[in-house]
Write a structure and sequence with these properties.
Length: 278
């Protein structure tokens, strides 16, 4: 209920947003001062390129799938790739901490574990990402580092910034917290090296699309196609924009069932002696 209210407040032209507008201006001013201070006095040179994949809004927009795709492409070109992450929700007490495919999600966080499983690259979590970067350099002699999120982590130097935008929700009402969903001013996007829009359209942006694949039975690991669901099922999502997941899942189920229906009709016509006229 609360999430739905906040979502409506941030992603529509809700009139009450102006009540928090002064606080949004204050937040934007503080974020600019923080960025200037960290970049000027806290950043230290890193001997390898660091590519930050982040976003301007609160919540998920598809950063982790983007990092996975980049890591796979860079590894295919023979580069030693390392990945760093904040590790939100991690319960380990010692940082930096290396995540392996055998780690537990409740200990290291679900996204770092997904990165480790999908990429095969060393993944290191730390609240201060520059410490994670140094761990990768010392342990693996990494040639290039990808940062999952961390656009606002200005204590970490970077060679490139990639901003991912939700093509459906965009930047919401365009206001900073708490009046809107922005972590920084919308003008910040102009300083990014690349802008990626996840579904939908965005000016001067490259497009990406998350396509639903197969369903996996979590307990057994069994892989199922959508048409194997013959009963009603419940969909549960705990991501930044759950409607995207629900929409893709529904489209996958409907598309496969439509294909099966068409195949059934074609074979039924053939069995009944019907032929398509030339």
């Amino acid at each position: 209920m609360l999430v739905a209210m906040i979502d409506k407040f941030w992603y529509t032209r809700h009139p009450l947003r102006w009540l928090l507008f002064p606080f949004a201006l204050l937040y934007e001013f503080i974020s600019k001062c923080r960025r200037f201070f960290l970049q000027r006095f806290c950043q230290q040179p890193i001997p390898v390129p660091v590519i930050v994949v982040g976003n301007l809004t609160v919540g998920g927009v598809g950063k982790t799938p983007m990092v996975i795709a980049l890591a796979q492409q860079l590894c295919a070109r023979g580069l030693r790739v390392g990945i760093v992450s904040r590790g939100y929700g991690a319960k380990v007490n010692v940082f930096p901490y290396e995540v392996t495919p055998d780690s537990k999600a409740d200990e290291v966080g679900d996204e770092p574990l997904l990165l480790a499983k999908k990429t095969g690259c060393p993944v290191v979590i730390a609240p201060k990402r520059k410490h994670a970067v140094q761990y990768l350099l010392d342990t693996y002699q990494t040639q290039i580092v990808l940062s999952d999120d961390g656009l606002q982590h200005y204590a970490m130097a970077r060679a490139m910034e990639i901003v991912v935008i939700d093509g459906t929700r965009g930047l919401g009402n365009g206001l900073c917290l708490p009046a809107g969903p922005l972590r920084e001013s919308a003008r910040r996007i102009k300083s990014a090296d690349f802008v990626i829009v996840n579904g939908g359209e965005w000016p001067d942006a490259y497009r990406m699309e998350l396509v639903a694949g197969k369903f996996i039975q979590l307990m057994s690991g069994q892989v199922l196609d959508a048409f194997e669901f013959n009963e009603k099922v419940a969909a549960v999502a705990a991501i930044g924009n759950p409607q995207r997941f629900l929409r893709h899942s529904l489209n996958l189920v409907c598309s496969l069932r439509l294909i099966l229906l068409l195949i059934t009709i074609v074979f039924s016509q053939r069995n009944c002696g019907f032929q398509k006229k030339e």
